[in-house]
Structure to design on (460 residues):
């Protein structure tokens, strides 16, 4: 029930094309109330925010490393079954995955798991007849992948389009969309990708322009049968019946209230993680470390996701009452889970790109200092000690994505880290004190529900 929007490489316009199609489909569906469900390949947080803003439904991440192949299939089946249209945005280039040795966790990997057709975006700038060689190569590289058509992006003129069309004609590969160079819509970005939706003042205007592009630049007679037609899933990896999503024990979190930091500084959360809290009976209570003076009342746990605390460090520092409220709660023993930006907030201070220092909650005697180096990639984290989430010796999969580092190394780090290729070792990281589990490593609980079981048991 979905088509996958893939790029020949990063930067060819996957997100622009995906958002244009979603906006156009949403505009089309308003008359008959049909639903549009989106998905995103990989661990990204920000692109799904734009998806959800347009569709009104949580975008679901499809990541076989953070979860599993069967989880990806089950997640897709569950969330697409009651929607008329489904669209999946790929990651990087079509065959680019977690390692250069194979296409694990790539867009192609997801296409095989879901038996979904691929729409390939081609960057046509500075090329004409050669575009056919590029398209032919992608089409034949892996015969298991069905490329249903192409979108020509950055087309310079009518004559340029004529040359491209003539070159592609012998391939019998449908042209499903054409975007001109002047059609590029600029979405602001910064050091970790696009600027999140909550910070954009002209977002509705951008979406309106994207919807116009979506309606006028694509061949909907050819696209709609792909987006709305059922595509039976590939056989499950085990060769048997497709696994169902894990059935969490609702009693674990029954009656618990967990304060979740949600504002411009903290916005990186997987939709499936939030769903699992509810399915286990816990209530997530949103609050803002920027604007709320203290934590919500009657809570049994704290959850700090990632985000951009460095961008809002001055406002976070100015809210002394909120910082004191968090510090008091943590020192009283309330179980706390903090990842990446959440870890930074619990440090003594944040030092931004301009070398300005801002006081934070001061649970950990270290500063989070911004730098030029990007730390990025999947990690297998081996627990070196017990925490509110893990037991010593546990192995969990996560993902790192940050430009900050800590000035002090914990004398008893939470994790030792290996890369996706097990021979790649990374410095031990993570902090555990009181009942706080804090780490740069982002976790997806979907196929690791025992972690949430353990956290909620501590909260109880």
């Amino acid at each position: 029930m979905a088509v996958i929007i893939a790029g020949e490489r990063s930067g060819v316009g996957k997100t622009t094309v995906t958002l244009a199609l979603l906006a156009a489909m949403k505009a089309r569906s308003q008359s008959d109330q049909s639903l549009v469900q989106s998905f995103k390949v990989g661990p990204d947080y920000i692109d799904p925010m734009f998806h959800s803003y347009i569709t009104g439904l949580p975008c679901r991440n499809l990541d076989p490393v953070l979860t599993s192949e069967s989880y990806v299939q089950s997640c897709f089946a569950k969330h697409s079954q009651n929607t008329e249209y489904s669209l999946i945005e790929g990651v990087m280039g079509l065959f680019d995955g977690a390692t250069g040795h194979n296409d694990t966790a790539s867009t192609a990997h997801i296409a095989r798991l879901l038996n979904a057709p691929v729409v390939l975006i081609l960057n046509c700038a500075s090329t004409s007849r050669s575009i056919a060689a590029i398209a032919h190569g992608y089409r034949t590289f892996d015969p298991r992948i069905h490329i249903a058509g192409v979108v020509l992006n950055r087309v310079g003129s009518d004559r340029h389009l004529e040359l491209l069309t003539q070159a592609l004609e012998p391939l019998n590969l449908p042209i499903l969309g054409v975007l001109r160079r002047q059609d590029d819509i600029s979405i602001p970005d910064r050091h970790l990708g696009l600027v999140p939706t909550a910070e954009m003042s002209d977002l509705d205007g951008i979406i309106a322009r994207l919807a116009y592009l979506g309606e006028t630049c694509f061949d909907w007679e050819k696209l709609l049968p792909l987006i709305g037609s059922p595509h039976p899933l590939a056989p499950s990896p085990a060769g048997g019946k497709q696994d169902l999503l894990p059935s969490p024990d609702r009693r674990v979190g029954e009656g618990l209230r967990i304060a979740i930091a949600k504002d411009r500084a903290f916005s990186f959360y997987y939709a499936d993680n939030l769903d699992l809290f509810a399915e286990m009976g816990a209530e997530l209570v949103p609050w803002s470390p920027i604007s709320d003076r203290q934590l919500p009342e009657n809570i049994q746990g704290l959850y700090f996701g990632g985000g951009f605390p460095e961008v809002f460090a001055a406002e976070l520092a100015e809210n002394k009452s909120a910082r004191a409220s968090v510090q008091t709660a943590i020192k009283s023993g309330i179980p706390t889970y903090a990842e990446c930006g959440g870890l930074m907030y619990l440090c003594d201070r944040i030092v931004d790109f301009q070398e300005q220092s801002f006081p934070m909650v001061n649970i950990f005697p270290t500063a989070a200092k911004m730098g030029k180096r990007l730390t990025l990639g999947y990690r297998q984290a081996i627990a070196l000690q017990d925490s509110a989430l893990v037991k010593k010796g546990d192995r969990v999969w996560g993902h790192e994505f940050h430009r900050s580092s800590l000035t002090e190394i914990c004398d008893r780090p939470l994790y030792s880290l290996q890369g996706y290729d097990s021979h790649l070792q990374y410095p031990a990281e993570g902090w555990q004190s009181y009942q706080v589990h804090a780490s740069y490593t982002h976790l997806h609980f979907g196929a690791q529900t025992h972690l949430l079981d353990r956290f909620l048991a501590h909260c109880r």
About this structure: The chain has two domains: 3-228, 250-459. The CA atoms of residues 52 and 58 lie 5 Å apart.
